[in-house]
Amino acid sequence: MYRMTKPRILTILIYAFTTSTLAFIYRDLYDLLVLLAPTIILVFIYARRGLHWIIIGVLIGLLGLFINAIAFSNTGETVFRLFTIEVKTGAVHAFLVVSIRLFIIAFAGALLALTYSPIEIYRSLIYELKTPVIIAFPVAYALRILPVVKRDYSEIVFQRKQRGLKTNLLNPLDLASVVTLLMVVNYERAKWSGISAELRGLRRIKPEFQYKPRIVDYILLTLLVLLVVYTIAF
Amino acid sequence: MGVYVNILRAGYQENHIVLRESMFKAGEGEVVLISGPSGSGKSTLILAITGILKHVLGGFVEGVVDLNGLNPLEPTGFEEIPREVSVLLQDPERQLVFPTPLDEVVVSLESLGSPRSTAFEKARGILSQIGLGGKENRHVEELSSGERRRLTLALLEIGDPRVIILDEPSANLDPRGVSLIRERVRDWKKQGKTVIIVEHKIQYFTDLADTMYTLRSRKLVEDAVRDDLYVNLPECRNNPAGASELVLELRGDIGYRDYTVLRDVDFKVYRGEIVAIIGPNGSGKTTLLKTIAGLTPILNGEITTSVKKLFYAPQNPDLVFVSWSVKREVKNIVKKTGLTVEELVNMFPWLSNALDQSPFLLSHGQRRLLELLIALAHGGDLLLLDEPTTGLDPSLYHSVLRELKNTRNKGRSIVVATHDPRLVLEVDRVYKVENGFLREVDKCRVVEEMIRETGV
Questions:
Q1: Which of A11, A30, B173, B413 could form a disulfide with A217 if both were Cys (CB 3.0 to 4.6 A apart)?
Q2: Does the distance separating the beta carbons of B81 and A163 come in below 8 Å?
Q3: Which of A127, A147, A197 has its CB closest to that of B97?
Q4: How far is B121 from chain A (nearest CA, A)?
């Protein structure tokens, strides 16, 4: 199957950051719709896998937004009646503005999180974005030990059962003792991994900034500039 | 150039000396073998001579250290250590700090000065040489333990270091793994590298060692190089099969949702016997123990058992602990099992000296011993022990063996997953995992095979 060339992570970072910031600034419905439209298209091109979870999350959030709009902005003429509540133009407008804002931010985040694997993101941190080793290494290490921590967790719970201790994780004390042990075990693991990293000379790596845009990056950045100019000018 | 070490005092805190008056030297192409009881400071010695103790862990080291012309006790020397020295840690798994093999190798190459433009290409070449071509971007946890071991060895050799330090290289390794390490040590010797090996099972390396030292009372003492390969091992005898009650039977396939580890398993345990499961790293021994324990569900088939209570002791002893001090662990055992402190101390007299310590700060061998104590106390009718003898010095090993035999004599059953031929020699029956199948094998023959496979 043909796959679209992915933009560089920095390009998506710039796009997501700019659109999210503008979504906070703009109050006009039309401006927000102009921002939302290309973001939705990009999400459908690059970040379809797992998108349904984001949409479900946003839809759940919409219910809260609607209640909020009724409570704080229900002014103007009545648009429709919901049971005994008269929903007025102010509430509808506020609901639409905040909902679109939420969709833009969620989709911009999804664009970054769903287009790239965690490994691609941390590689970009190390190899492209000149992130100091002290920041990039913990990200890489977290990805390394995530499956190990998951395995440790199930073993710790199992061992506690074997030793006749409670494992009711809804009980804060039981949960705390399991999580504390998990942290101790992984602190020890992290300590030795840190020693290994030192012995392998990780600190000698010089971070570099290597942003090499491709055609798709130029297209995206141009689109972003057009969006900003259009919404400011009109 | 080689290595010259003369440590006057070293430790983690100024008022607590872990090493003193320890001196050794080794020329190019020489191998130094260092042994010593569990918790005697062997790993600390490695941390001291590489500068980690002083510069990373905030400890102190007084004396002289010269590793191929570098002084790691000075900040400038410590910075240069990765260029001249490679270290294999006690748990090689912790040596792998990046999510994929490609990142591991690329970062190692870069840290040694390879430009990024060529590092990726070089890394792919190295991974292809060690049989990991095509798996460059897989998560490290998805590799078999054999593949991970090959990766750690490859990392060790990147940059052609002049000094190589190995901390318990045989721990958790199958005989073929030991043989692989021995081959590499022999090659390094020929290449004129200086090799420092810290090891409990010294017999694996005595024939390769030029000098041998033992850590006694925090001091390094030179020993004569001994060639005592298994000289004290008892003669192997296949125990006659006696009529006994079947306590556990597992028939079927075991593994995980997405893949089968062992097929057509037919595994039986009788009352009052010790059964060993042997086989290469990553072959499915631990999965079998976890399936019996109920931690991993059986894929197809069934487990029938008459035991009311069993205990599974995993490879990582830390997962079993529930308290912050050994004393509280002991109290907990007493509370839950009804055994007395005296009975527990009688099992492992070492315990009385460790009551005030945190279980998490004990040496690996001591943590293993505490885990075994917990398993023996809680164990019920069936104990499942995963690699119970790793990290144990000879004295601790013998106390563990004695307790395992006592437990068997009380009519309880034990299943051990092990690579240790000394332990296999003492068990009643042996199952071997090979190519995805488990079969019962002749004990004496496999012990011979295991010793032969190490290449000693």
A1: A11
A2: no
A3: A197
A4: 15
Residue B156: closest CA among chain A residues belongs to which residue? A200
CB atoms within 10 A of CB B234: 8
A190-208: burial string, b at 16+ Cβ within 10 Å, e else: bebbbbbbbbbbbeebebe
Q: Which residue has the higher pLDDT, A167 or B425?
A: B425
C-alpha distance from A112 to closest chain B C-alpha (Å): 20
CATH topology of domain B246-453: Rossmann fold (3.40.50)
Instruction: Kindly report the CATH class assigned to B3-99+139-223.
Output: alpha beta
What was the ipTM of the complex prediction?
0.83
d(CA B378, CA A160): 12
What is the model's pLDDT at position B226?
58
Q: Give the pLDDT of residue A1.
A: 42
Domain residue spans of chain A: 9-122+212-233, 132-204
Residue A179, helix vs strand vs coil: helix
- H/E stretch holding B380: none
Number of other residues whose CB lies within 10 A of the CB of residue A90: 17
Q: What are the residues whose beta carbons fall under 8 Å from the beta carbon of B338, sequence distance 6 or more?
A: none
Contacts of B142 (CB under 8 A, 6+ apart): none
CB contact under 8 A, B311 and A162: yes
Residue B267 has pLDDT above 60, yes or no: yes
**Overall size of chain B counted in residues:** 456
Identify the closest residue of chain A to B100 by CA–CA distance: A144
CA distances to A192, B142, B163, B167, B199 from B90, rounded to whole Å, are: 9, 21, 17, 5, 9
- The two tokens of residue B83 are 């260029």
pLDDT in tens, A83-120: 888 999 999 999 999 999 999 999 999 888 888 877 78
Between B46 and B174, the more confident residue is B46
Is B52 close to A210, i.e. CB distance below 8 A? no
Amino acid at B253: D
Return the top range by mean pLDDT from A117-126, B212-221, B426-435: B426-435
Across the range B383-396, mean pLDDT stands at: 88
CA distance B289 to chain A (A): 13
Taking contacts as CB-CB distances below 8 angstroms, the residues of chain B near A140 are 97-99, 103
Minimum distance, in Å, between the CA of residue A172 and any CA atom of chain B? 16
For B66, half-sphere exposure in the C-beta direction (CA atoms, 13 angstrom radius) is: 14
Q: Is the model's pLDDT at B431 over the cut of 60?
A: yes
CB of B44 less than 8 A from some CB of A: no
Question: Angle at CA B311, nearest 5°, toward B416 and B403?
Answer: 60
A195–B47 C-beta distance less than 8 A = yes
What is the reported pLDDT for B134? 84
Domain ranges of chain B: 3-99+139-223, 246-453
Instruction: Read off the pLDDT of each residue in B195-206 and give the average, rounded to a whole number.
Output: 89
* pLDDT surpassing 80 at residue B145: no
Which chain B residues are Cβ-neighbours of A181 within 8 angstroms?
318-319, 321-322
Shortest CB distance from B322 goes to which of A143, A160, A198? A160
With bands split at pLDDT 50, 70 and 90, how would you rate the model's confidence at B258?
confident
Say how far apart CA A189 and CA A182 lie, in whole Å.
11
Look at residue B299 and give its three-state secondary structure: coil
- Tokens 């190899």 correspond to A127
Identical fold between B3-99+139-223 and B246-453? yes
Mutate to test the interface with A, among B114, B318, B363, B385 (most CBs of A within 10 A): B318
Q: What is the mean predicted confidence (pLDDT) over A26-43?
A: 90
